């Protein structure tokens, strides 16, 4: 599967006083793309990685161009860049759907987490397979 592209709409309220999409709202776009990509259920119908315990450890965001509000959606491309024992990195680009401009490059480090113990846990084999399907 490699890169996955999602088309997401901007909201009027995403703008800040500088008349472009606020940096916090950019993180919300990335979150929305990540949740949609990993879904509420895995392709085989089992619980998604989001339901079995995943937390965000780190965001890195590079703002390349101001992203102004418009009614047309933006493209958010995402892929898994790295997989470790208990963590994985999701990489993104927010772009024009025709690829004429790239507004943001970003990455999120996610950690598999056991909510009962309050500690990180190793990625299961089925989770690793899902991540491999999204590897860039």
TrEMBL record:
Signal peptide: none annotated. SUPFAM superfamilies: Thioesterase/thiol ester dehydrase-isomerase. It is an enzyme of class 3 (hydrolase). Keywords: Hydrolase. Its EC number is 3.1.2.-. Pfam families: 4HBT_2. The keyword Hydrolase applies. Gene3D superfamilies: Hotdog Thioesterase. InterPro entries: 4-hydroxybenzoyl-CoA_TE, HotDog_dom_sf. It comes from the Bacteria. GO terms for molecular function: fatty acyl-CoA hydrolase activity. The keyword Mitochondrion does not apply. PANTHER family: 4-HYDROXYBENZOYL-COA THIOESTERASE FAMILY MEMBER, LONG-CHAIN ACYL-COA THIOESTERASE FADM. This is Acyl-CoA thioester hydrolase. It comes from Kineococcus aurantiacus.
């Amino acid at each position: 599967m490699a890169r996955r592209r999602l088309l997401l709409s901007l909201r009027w309220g995403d703008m800040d006083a500088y008349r472009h999409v606020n940096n916090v709202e950019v993180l919300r776009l990335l979150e929305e793309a990540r949740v949609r990509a990993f879904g509420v259920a895995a392709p085989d119908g089992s619980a998604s990685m989001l339901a079995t315990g995943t937390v965000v450890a780190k965001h890195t965001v590079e703002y390349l161009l101001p992203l102004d509000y418009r009614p047309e959606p933006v493209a958010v491309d995402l892929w898994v860049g790295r997989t470790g024992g208990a963590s994985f990195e999701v990489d993104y680009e927010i772009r024009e759907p025709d690829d004429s401009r790239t507004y943001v490059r970003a990455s999120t480090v996610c950690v598999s987490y056991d909510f009962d113990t309050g500690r990180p846990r190793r990625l299961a084999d089925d989770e690793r397979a899902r991540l491999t399907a999204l590897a860039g």
